[in-house]
Amino acid sequence: MTRHRRHLLVALSAASVLALAGCATPAGSGAPAGASDAPPGASLGSLWPAPPEGDVVAQGTVMDVGGEVELCLGAVAESYPPQCGGIPITNWTWDGIDGSETSGDTTWGAYAVQGTYDGEEFTVTQPPIMLALYDPMMPEDPTGGEPGAGDEQTLLAIQEDLPDALDEAYLSSYPENGWLWVDVVWDDGTWQDAADADYGDDTVVIRSALRPVDG
Question: What are phi and psi of 17, to 5 degrees?
Answer without folding.
Answer: -120, 160
